[in-house]
Amino acid sequence: MRRSLLLVLAIPLLASCTSVVTGSPTAGTTLERRGPAGTVPAGLERFYGQQLGWEDCGPYATTGTTTSQFRNRADVECARLEVPLDYAQPTGRTIRLGLLRRQADGDRIGSLVINPGGPGASGMSAAAGLASQVKRTDLGERFDLVGFDPRGVGASEPQVKCLSDAERDVERLDTDLDTSPPGIAQTEEENKRYAEKCASTSGADLLANVGTRDVVRDLDVMRSALGDEKLTYLGYSYGTHIGAGYAQAFPGNVRALVLDGAVDPTQNQVESLIAQGAGFQKAFDAFAAWCAKRQDCALGADPAKANQAFRDLTLPLAERPVAVEDRELSYNDAITGAIQAMYSEELWEPLNTGLTELKNNRGDVLMLLADSYFDRDQQGRYGTLNDAFVAIKCVDEPRVTDRAVLDDVARRYKAAAPFLDDGRPAAGALDACAFWPVPPTVQEPKPVTGLPPVLVISTTGDPATPYDAGVSLAKELGGGLLTFEGNQHTVYLQGNECVDPVGDRYLIDLELPAEGTRCS
């Protein structure tokens, strides 16, 4: 359930400033002022019209992954956008968001702003990964590609950070499988300490203003500072939630929205979690059927027995983790590695290899898959994804503290995803959000009027955001729906020769596909 954004008094500008001011306050920096553009809320003029300093992206890297992505890149540039920490106090403390841009090659329409989801994933990293892919394409000709790290994430300052790298490694070894009353009490005490540590290291003021409500406001500041009267946006997964929130708050400021891998706006978090469990089970069943056709399938030749075969391989790790160099593969890591592989058919081969390794008391590949999910680089450094995910979730959603509800959710999830059933009695524990130091800023859905047609892309075998969620979002926003028949999480700009042209045509020409269009 989500609460609508408060409306703000807006001043329409008859003409927007798109002048570019160049200079070099520091070597290699280009100063640019393209805003204010379009509608500017009263009291926020200095943010909407701010000058951006574009420079080399190397210093913006915060992990080994982004270091390799950003280093020695002549095709992208980075800057930081200043926004209020609390939009209710625009003259108070400010924070800065990281931006990465690949400029259009030809006749520029505007900026295509990207968020890859999470919540807590780096949009700068996503844009850096897509930059070479859009080169010499119609999309790259017409749009600046702009990825941003939301507040608290990645290169944005300050970061949400709760655990050190060493503490995160230790936390991954804690299975929390004991569902007896003492076991639940221990888990809840750990969650309480985690919430306290987040408040201590990140600050309650940042945690109170890190949710989607504020990211949507940041996105409108970004639109104007980039010189766009209307927003053109591409959101994946949780990024669709940001896009839908923007559509509710600023429908008149939308040019085009592509929302791929939708979060269902009509579901509460309990129903969404159960639907996601069923989605992962559906993906696992597809993996098991694929695997059963192979001579080397780690789960055997009968897909009907795959759930039990998977449990037989992974459950022993709860008592005896497997050594992986100077670390140990825990039960949680094995499950996380398998979940990571459900996001794309391209990871099914590594998953089968990892499960085969497990038969031989090895865990190298499953550890790599889990490290990828947890955003851990080869040097042992974690990105901000894990802590930001929790912080955003805890202010975006109402607290669930009814133990009867928690127990029911545990039972229903085990039934929805039996391959993940650990065999323990179903019982739920209060999560970190129950102890969070700041109240939620839940956004209630509201009817959207004055919104131009948007494009929702939904995949039939999407494990994380099941297909029906996209159908629901398209209906809610009155948009077009493109169906992709496949087993993966999101699809646009991933090389599909049917999906990519449809998305490109919409973004460039604002042309929706015919009703009922399907790709495979």
Descriptive notes:
- With 520 residues, this protein is α/β, with parallel strands linked by helices.
- The protein has helices at 45-48, 64-70, 123-131, 138-142, 165-172, 181-202, 204-208, 212-225, 238-249, 269-292, 306-314, 331-341, 348-359, 364-373, 385-396, 403-416, 467-477, 499-509, and strands spanning 10-11, 30-32, 40-41, 52-54, 77-84, 94-102, 110-115, 143-149, 231-236, 254-260, 322-324, 327-329, 455-459, 480-484, 518-519.
- It is built from 18 helices and 15 strands.
- The strands form 4 sheets. The chain has a 9-stranded mixed sheet with strand order 5-6-8-7-9-10-13-14-15, with helices on both faces. A two-stranded antiparallel ribbon has the order 1-3.
- Strand 13 (455-459), helix 17 (467-477) and strand 14 (480-484) form a beta-alpha-beta unit.
- The model is unreliable at 1-25 (pLDDT under 50).
- Helix content is 38%, strand content 14%.
- Residues 112-494 form the AB hydrolase-1 domain.
- InterPro entries: AB_hydrolase_1, AB_hydrolase_fold, Serine_prot/Carboxylest_S33.
- This is Pimeloyl-ACP methyl ester carboxylesterase.
